[in-house]
Fold this sequence. Notes:
By secondary structure, the protein is an alpha+beta fold.
Amino acid sequence: xxxxxxxxxxxxxxxxxxxxxxxxxxxxxxxxxxxxxxxxxxxxxxxxxxxxxxxxxxxxxxxxxxxxxxxxxxxxxxxxxxxxxxxxxxxxxxxxxxxxxxxxxxxxxxxxxxxxxxxxxxxxxxxxxxxxxxxxxxxxxxxxxxxxxxxxxxxxxxxxxxxxxxxxxxxxxxxxxxxxxxxxxxxxxxxxxxxxxxxxxxxxxxxxxxxxxxxxxxxxxxxxxxxxxxxxxxxxxxxxxxxxxxxxxxxxxxxxxxxxxxxxxxxxxxxxxxxxxxxxxxxxxxxxxxxxxxxxxxxxxxxxxxxxxxxxxxxxxxxxxxxxxxxxxxxxxxxxxxxxxxxxxxxxxxxxxxxxxxxxxxxxxxxxxxxxxxxxxxxxxxxxxxxxxxxxxxxxxxxxxxxxxxxxxxxxxxxxxxxxxxxxxxxxxxxxxxxxxxxxxxxxxxxxxxxxxxxxxxxxxxxxxxxxxxxxxxxxxxxxxxxxxxxxxxxxxxxxxxxxxxxxxxxxxxxxxxxxxxxxxxxxxxxxxxxxxxxxxxxxxxxxxxxxxxxxxxxxxxx
Length: 559
């Protein structure tokens, strides 16, 4: 899944490359219906004003948009302020059409108003107007309630009569939206991208200094697998969407990255499995905690094979690093360290081979306490325990190394091994942890937990109990959240003289009713997946308070 999302930027950039190629339109008769290849939309002027005023209200300026209107009125006169505007690039497989689409009913008056800004226009014939400013030239024409602008007059042919119909799916949800219809890009251009990716890999694939032939071949095989993955994405991804929205109604801002698969493709089948993700570690789902992470997904065979290749290369890198760079006192100690590292990697490889990623992490934080627990499904937990014991063997002769208490506690089949480390002699860590930092590793039949902080075992036990009480809980494939208010409240406790920090922390605590989260969620959509980065109203308000405080401080005003 991560590699799929990582391919999106490459696919979106390709639309720009294709547009550059399209600037010399084909002269062949159209092969069929014009279809959108790429869209960019901006929501209507009135909607943008509301969103700008909402953002301004968070900093005490509810009429912020009015400050900008005098500077842009000349450009927006004549616009239908309720309609979106945008850019469309279309193709029928051989010919291209593309333009900036403005909701303007009277194009001649609009052009006349632009003369005050040094933008001239002249008749180019056949209903086309040439527009010039600062040595740059555009071509435009009037449609039914719309004006179209493009870099070449040929691109103004075969444009949609009503762009609002193709913009609506994007503009109704996002203030700024971009969509690439990958399968509408002509096959020749998609093949060109694949060949460019392969050529780039071949050009950059050189043996590195001190790299053995075996390591080089392993790295080359990994790069080849990644190129094959990109090639499959180009063939099987249908649409890619990136959208940014300031949602003044629900008082949040979010950025979406989404993609859908070609119906019936292997990718489509894989995404269908994400539509019903469940976890056996529901105890980690604590959206009101200071921090939370949940993962629940299935690995595909191709992903497993690629990860196995990566682990093979990583093993060799770790062993080489231990041999050449470690300060271990003897060859025997180095072999023990390599054996421990291999045990940990064996455990992770067994997890990948099982094809299940299921687990999470939780951070609980107050000015008086910190605790952190992470854990989840592990294919071979015994290997984790074996690796820990080998590491303990390495440190047995070091008087500074604290002793591990093996099997110090157990709960529901999970055995806990504990370790206590003296807390640094400073106020902040001692207030959060006490005199010692308590750590524990819990080993279950198919699970491993790591916890630290105050009452770390008790906290882990509670998560285990809640997980056992809610097996197979439906969750998003990935969700992560941070409570900025809880985090800043703790930081502000240790920084009492930072006035800006105190103001922001107080605003988050008193004015946001818990809506102070930054959240990332990957969710299934129809034949695809959407990853959303969301900032709640409280965080935006805190940013506004901080900006205002800094302005007042710079001006020397009392706060």
